[in-house]
Amino acid sequence: MSEERRISEATTVSYPKEVLSRLIDGELVWDSLKPIISGAKDGDRFDKVTEILQERMPWQERILLPLSYDLYIVEKDGERIVKCACGHEFGDYRENWKLNALIHVRDSDEAVKEIYPVILRPDSQYCEIREFYCPGCGTQLEVETVPAGYPIIFDFLPDLDAFYEEWLGQPLATKKEFTDLSDRVIEKWGT
Ligand SMILES: [Zn+2]
Questions:
Q1: Domain assignment of residue 128, yes or no
Q2: Span 52-61, mean pLDDT?
Q3: Separation of 90 CA from ligand 1 center, angstroms?
Q4: What is the predicted pLDDT for the residue at 7?
Q5: Ligand 1 centre distance from Cα of residue 61 (Å)
Q6: What residues are paired with 132 via a beta bridge?
Q7: From CA 103, how far away is CA 135, in angstroms rounded?
Q8: Considering the domain boundaries, does residue 69 fall inside one?
Q9: How many CB atoms are located within 10 Å of the residue 139 CB?
Q10: Domain interval for residue 45
């Protein structure tokens, strides 16, 4: 066994779900938080965290991967879709969910001034602020500041099959092609 591996195993602590639940809610003081986030992760950390999040959701579909505090990739009827904590569904996880969100664009000085102090605000001649909201609950899910006209950023397209098979050692029942399908959403806009 390598030295690195021995050290990692020696310092691995298995934290109970109650502690991880408080970690998610930001309730731990720094002295308790630091060893958890800087130490080697216990083997079942992903399972425990997913279980905690699953228990909190008002719906039953299995969470495959949390994308943020409000967004989750879930398994539904053999498909893998993005779902909001409120239950709103955005579609296949390989399509950029932002394309199916409500989008508010701040592309004028007037609009940018509403949220930024004068000397710190981005110049609306060169860039725009895009806010993405859930059509189901109105929660602001993401914000991006980009040059005007820049394509909507696809923040995260995980290779779920590789993650479950190679990292967790728990292959998913069916496989899906790992590819970006966002173009098919845009194609529908033109029909
Ligand atoms: Zn929602």
A1: no
A2: 97
A3: 10
A4: 46
A5: 15
A6: 103, 142
A7: 10
A8: no
A9: 15
A10: 1-56
Task: Scan for tokens 């950029």, then name that residue.
Answer: 96
Q: Please, how many CA atoms are within 13 Å of residue 161, restricted to the half-sphere of its CB?
A: 9
In a domain, 18, yes or no: yes
Residue type (1 letter), 120 = L
∠ CA(112), CA(149), CA(185), 5° rounding?
115
Q: How many domains does the chain have?
A: 1
Q: What is the mean pLDDT of residues 133-159?
A: 96
How remote is the CA of residue 51 from the centroid of ligand 1, in Å?
Answer: 20
**83, 90 in Cβ contact below 8 A?**
yes
- Asked whether 32 and 25 are in contact (CB, 8 A), the reply is no
Ligand 1 center to 133 CA (angstroms)? 8
Is 145 a domain residue? no
Share of the chain above pLDDT 70, in %: 94
pLDDT (tens digit per residue) in 87-114: 999 999 999 999 999 999 999 999 999 9
